[in-house]
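Recap from last week: sequence in, structure out.
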Amino acid sequence: MSHTAHIRSHRKPRRSATTSIAVRAGVASGVLGMAAAGAASASAAEPVTQTLELPTLTADLATQVAQSADATQQAAANYTLQAERDAAAANAAKQAKADLAEAKKKKAEEARKAAAERAASRSAERTTLSASTSSSASTSTSTATGSAAAVVAFVKAQIGDAYVSGGTGPNSWDCSGLVQAAFKSVGVSLPRVSQDQSTQGTQVSLSNLQPGDILYWGSAGSAYHVAVYVGDGMFVGAQNPSSGVGEHPLSYDPPTGAVRVL
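Predicted structure tokens:
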């Protein structure tokens, strides 16, 4: 046996590959741990500021924004114009209603005044006529002669007879039937109705009446009543169903005009 067989070698024993990797991994882990700790310490010490970048306003987007603003402004202008138009229409309708009411009121007032004027005119005419007929009674011939006297006598003889529409005698008469019969008694033929009788002979003034003249009410050609003037401001006629044939003063029912046939 060699004398060196029991002497230990001075060479260091080799480390296995696994041990070397483990050591390196531990070193790396320690380094990373220190780095993380340092980062955490830095984060706790100083806040991090983050900057956000806004999108750039492009030309198309600016155009769209401008168009939208114009559209909004136009819509607002349209709403304002429509509101003004609606207000104007409401005011116009209100004014038209007020004008219509005023026109109706004015028309009613004018009608009232016209009616009052007509009433006053009729009253004045009646007063004038009454005065003129009273005057004519004293100036006109009170005593009838000839055919006129016969006509007067005929109508006076019928006083008290009944009034019947369409009556022509001998005991009931209407106004024109009595006048026609009275003039027929002296040979004078007259039309049957008042309208036509009012246009016979010659028109005479109510202030110049003579016995035997035919009085009429209404206008010549459209008279609605006739009678015979008998003198002294009196007339005889078939007035209506309630009074029949009677003698009345001219003031009882002033006539409109008169005609002279005889």
